[in-house]
Design a protein that fits this description.
- The complex is a heterodimer.
- Chain A is mainly alpha-helical.
- Chain A has 15 helices and two strands.
- Chain A has a two-stranded antiparallel sheet.
- In chain A, helix 3 (about 80-85) packs across helix 15 and helix 4 runs antiparallel to helix 11 (about 220-250).
- In chain A, about 30% of the residues are buried.
- Chain B has 19 helices and 15 strands.
- Chain B has a five-stranded mixed beta sheet with strand order 2-1-3-13-6.
- In chain B, strand 4 and strand 5 form a beta hairpin.
- In chain B, helix 18 packs antiparallel against helix 19.
- The longest helix of chain B is centred in the N-terminal third of the chain and has 23 residues, at about 1-25.
- The chains are: A mainly alpha, B alpha/beta.
- The interface of A and B includes residues 155, 260 and 277 of A.
Chain lengths: ~325, ~425
């Protein structure tokens, strides 16, 4: 979909952050253009068939009422009018924003972990593997295990809290804690991936700069603040753009961790969850398409804003 | 990158699928026909395969392939397949989805075929043939049925010195026993009162003389004082502390609480018998009886799966032969001895009752006399979602029952109005 283009652009830029944007080559003569098209042809065709066409269809369906077994009738902007007045959407928007904000807090944690794992310590490979494990584990399995940990009566978290005399909540079913509980898992599951990106970023910082800094009398902490962090900003930018895009589409964790009848569901229902309910539970496919498009628009706007703001804080050496 | 792989993989799968469909559609050169039968229960696959084998023996020119789709994906997949015109020739149907499929012409009416073959449908419980009728026409042959019973933990009853429940019990007996059996120090509750329709509050609504949705599917029953009485029964049990809290039961399913001895009484379906029978830790400590009598009547929700025929199938005559066989007495007897479900065909249920002798399973058959069909309408899922949303807040105590019932009545009525307008 729409966000794929941005993802590619960022990831294309990332491995070689030193090369400025202006350094990109323009296609030259006609012969070369032909070859270029030949090579990107399959990808473009795949994108057109599997992303662009469905997106266009979705846009069309969002202006229709779509029967449970096909057959759509044009209803104009009715779905969008309904959306604007749907209290559930407002709540879902709020939940999704809070979730995204909390998961973004995982980025500083990942930076610290990456910096620590970048030292010459024994068994660093083991630690790196441990941090990366959640990334290669099925989200469904992660969610199920965490659901057990969070269980109010028999969960291990409340067991340990009980040892120090604290009566823990029914974390996922209490509207006050549910969203935070899910977001913690979101952070936990994304740290490994982010650490890999940051580690790559750290490795690409030339040792001479650190040498120069230490000759100038900078200690470890100052080096981290004035050398590491600024030179890591392209990676941070990349990770934050990706995090916003993926967290805005959060669904699987909530779907599996928070039961349908849970009092915590209204406090955790995300935009995609709302989309799922409308489209697959209540058979309102046209309305669901409208929800999907609003989500696409929000992600697009947020990504554009991030790209605009990057000039202020991202340093391409 | 991952996405690109996924795309490539998907296209391969799609291609393979197309090739597969092309390969098996239509009859072979010798006039043989291939049919598909959609089911969702893995536990019933072996028994279903036996039925299919027996059918193929009778009809050597018809080949039947079972298509198993797990429950979680069954309806989404079936709906998508039906939209694309490629649903299985015959498939399992349930009550909540039935009118959606019949009303949209996805499944074929069977009235003419039943009349032509002189089939007697009075061999099935009337509640089930009613459930699978649309515009007074039958659309499916009942396969099995389930009713709800009162399961209880004898050990906890003995410890508390309470007599075991039996068919003479009323609501008052349940309430009194639940209070006596509750022991907060040990974390034991007298009864589980979850917010579940089929196993719990639908039964008490009917026992109180109320209704959920009017039989014509046009009117919500949540404004009826009797309906509210049926809900109050459960809300009071939570309020009095005889049941775990709503949140506790969302965290840990009531059936699990019951099987670990944390709950002494538990309303649950006949389908749980097989699960309880396999649980060596508790199976000899638990018993079952009919649901206690309510202020107005005896009642148990009855529901069952039916065999339906895809209206756009290419081989409907052969599919009808298959469905006719699956709905026959012979198939019912074979199904009963597998011990998984209660067959719908009259007088074939004894084999099921005998399959788990440690439980008084006859209670579930006795309830046929006063069983009430599971309330459904054209788009059951829509108001079921409202029901869970609103009643959840009543069960937690956030909303009063009176306010919740009023709100729910408005929502269910709006959903019914919408589906009847379409």
């Amino acid at each position: 979909m729409g966000h794929l283009a941005t993802q590619r652009e960022v990831s294309g830029r990332h491995p070689a952050p030193r090369r400025g944007t202006q350094a990109r080559r323009r296609p030259r003569g006609n012969g070369q253009t032909w070859w270029a098209w030949l090579f990107i042809g399959p990808t473009v065709a795949g994108l057109a068939v599997f992303y662009a066409w469905p997106a266009i269809r979705t846009l069309y369906f969002s202006f229709t009422e779509w029967g449970p077994f096909g057959g759509s009738t044009w209803v104009g902007g009715a779905n969008y009018v309904k959306l604007a007045t749907d209290p559930d959407l407002l709540r879902a928007l709020g939940n999704t924003f809070v979730y995204t904000a909390v998961v973004l807090l995982g980025i500083p944690i990942a930076i610290v972990v990456a910096a620590l794992l970048n030292q010459n310590i024994r068994g660093v490979g083991v630690y790196r593997t441990l941090y990366f494990l959640p990334v290669v584990t099925m989200p469904a399995a992660i969610a199920l295990v965490w659901r057990m940990l969070y269980n109010g009566d028999y969960g291990i978290i409340n067991y340990f809290l009980g040892l120090i005399g604290v009566h823990g909540a029914s974390w996922l079913n209490d509207p006050r804690t549910a969203l935070l509980a899910v977001a913690v898992v979101g952070i936990w599951a994304s740290i490994g991936y982010n650490v890999v990106i940051f580690t790559a970023g750290l490795k690409s910082i030339p040792a001479e700069i650190y040498d120069a800094a230490s000759i100038d009398g900078a200690g470890r902490i100052r080096q981290f603040r004035h050398v590491t962090l600024p030179l890591l900003t392209p990676s941070i930018f990349f990770v934050s753009v990706l995090t916003v895009i993926t967290t805005f589409q959060v669904f699987d964790l909530i779907y599996i961790m928070v039961p349908k009848s849970s009092p915590g569901l209204p406090a955790t229902r995300s935009i995609v969850y709302l989309f799922y309910e409308a489209g697959f539970v209540e058979n309102q496919r046209g309305y669901a398409a409208a929800v999907a498009f609003v989500l696409l628009a929000i992600i697009l706007v947020l990504t554009v804003i991030q790209f605009r703001l990057q000039r202020r804080w991202v340093h391409y050496e | 990158m991952r996405r690109k792989w996924l795309t490539a993989l998907l296209s391969v799968v799609v291609l393979a699928g197309v090739a597969g469909v092309a390969g098996c559609s239509g009859g072979g050169s010798d006039g043989a026909v291939s049919l598909s039968l959609g089911i969702w229960d893995k536990a019933q696959q072996p028994a279903t395969q036996k039925l299919v084998d027996a059918f193929e023996k009778q009809h050597p020119k018809i080949h039947v392939k079972i298509q198993l789709t797990p429950w979680e994906q069954y309806w989404t997949k079936l709906q998508t397949a039906a939209t694309g015109g490629s649903a299985p020739d015959a498939f399992w149907m349930n009550g909540p989805n039935f009118q959606l499929y019949a009303g949209n012409g996805v499944i074929a009416p069977l009235d003419k075929r039943i009349a032509d073959d002189g089939l007697d449908t009075s061999v099935y419980p009337k509640a089930l043939t009613d459930l699978y009728s649309y515009d007074a026409k039958p659309y499916a042959l009942p396969k099995d049925f389930d009713t709800i019973g009162l399961w209880y933990n004898k050990e906890l009853f003995d410890k508390a010195g309470v007599d075991y429940p039996d068919s003479s019990w009323t609501w008052k007996d349940v309430q009194a026993a639940a209070a006596k059996l509750t022991d907060p120090k040990k974390g034991v509750f007298g009864i589980a009162a979850p917010e579940i329709g089929q196993q719990n509050f639908y039964n008490t609504i009917f026992q109180a003389g109320g209704y959920v949705v009017s039989p014509d599917g046009r009117k919500s029953g949540f404004a009826d004082p009797a309906t509210i009485d049926g809900l109050k029964f459960w809300v009071d049990l939570i309020k009095s502390g005889s049941s775990p809290s709503y949140q506790q039961m969302v965290d840990t399913a009531p059936a699990d609480l019951f099987q670990t001895g944390k709950v002494a009484m538990h309303y649950d379906g006949s389908w749980m018998a097989a699960t309880f029978d396999k649980n060596t830790a508790v199976r000899d400590k638990i018993g079952v009886t009919v649901l206690p009598k309510g202020p107005k009547a005896r009642a148990s929700v009855i529901h069952g799966v039916g065999y339906a025929m895809y209206a756009k199938g290419k081989h409907q005559n052969e599919t009808w032969q298959l469905i006719k066989f699956l709905g026959s007495e012979r198939a019912a007897t074979m199904l009963a001895s597998s011990g998984t479900v209660i067959p719908a065909y009259q007088n074939t249920q004894q084999a099921w009752v005998d399959s788990m002798p440690r439980f008084h399973l006859k209670a579930f058959i006795d309830e046929l006399a006063y069983a009430v069909p599971l309330p459904v309408s054209r788009n059951t899922a829509a108001w079921n979602a409202d029901q869970d949303k609103v009643l959840g807040t009543v069960w937690t105590g956030k909303t009063s029952l009176a306010d919740g019932a009023r709100d729910l009545n408005d929502k269910v009525q709006a959903a019914l109005d919408k589906e009847n307008k379409d």
